[in-house]
Amino acid sequence: MSELVTGEAVALELRPAKLPSRALAVLIDLAVAFAVYIAVTMAFAAATASLDDAAVAAVAVATFLLVLVGIPIAVETLSHGRSLGKLACGLRVVRDDGGPIRFRHALVRGAVGVVEILMTFGVVACIASLVSARGRRVGDVFAGTLVVRERVPTGQLAVVPPPPPWLVGRFAELDLSAVPEGLWLAVRQYLTRMGQLDPQVGWGIAERLAGELAAHTGAPVPSDVPPAAFLAAVMHERQSREAQRAFGASAAASGQTASGVAGAAPGTYGGYAEAAGPVPPAAPLAPAVPPAPAAGPADSPTQRPGPPPADNPPAGSGSSDGPTTGFVPPA
Predict the structure, then answer these.
(1) What 3-state class would DSSP assign to 42?
(2) Mapping DSSP to helix (H, G, I), strand (E, B) and coil, where does residue 302 land?
(3) Strands (E), 70-115
(4) d(Cα 227, Cα 232) in Å, to the nearest integer?
(5) pLDDT in tens, 27-49
(6) How many CB atoms lie within 10 A of CB 275?
(7) Fewer CB within 10 Å, N- or C-terminus of the chain?
(8) Residues 132-172 pLDDT 10s
């Protein structure tokens, strides 16, 4: 797993594509490209039969550059790094910071790929991919790109746990503008991995990060809040502000409500005891009394539909058919 950090200090945990999957994607792309090249060459050969040898050679070179170089560059640019082979293998070309590639990235990759893939039959690309820690070929190094896998199981993605419900909104007045991005990244990495740490080691890391965060915000860590819960609450406050700036107040309010519901119950957080005050018991709810149905015209005795008088036995006749229900059985 390769962790790329964007300009907003968001860590993207991406899985770089290795040589087997990249080789399969390249083979699919080359098979399609050569099939199109052969078809276009045969069409041009029939159309340029009356031309001289120099014109035929020029058309052949132009066809080669157009089909085997120009079309792959255009496809990668328009699809943001997903050619036909990469789409079939679940791969994608991205920049070093995790963003989508542009025309200049695809152009450099395609131009270098003519030498390291087509002219050397992929030998240079295979050696460079094996040597590179992230499986990059020479074209990726010059273009500043990386081929990653898109089909990553969601269960392996690290998620920042929400804060306890009793801390949601408590640090809404903190000034977070002076906190460096590197500290935010360290806090995020700790929150996503604190369940894997020894309790004593994790407590020490949380205290150190909480102290640094309090030093940049100008407000001390409350004595009744554990360091891990303090870090989670401040991180949640930062994410809420970012969501409010991006999507409005309604998105931030809904995010706070969802985090409060999904948060850990008061008493434990991240394996550490919380010094939370007692939660007052909720007042008992009065039992709801169903309203009496209003009598309508159809419920009055004079207008209620019923069977003909001949079919209803008189009251007190001692009939064994039971009480009348207003239903007339078919004859």
Answers:
(1) helix
(2) coil
(3) 91-95
(4) 9
(5) 999 999 999 989 988 888 888 77
(6) 11
(7) C
(8) 888 899 999 999 998 988 875 554 556 778 888 888 888 88
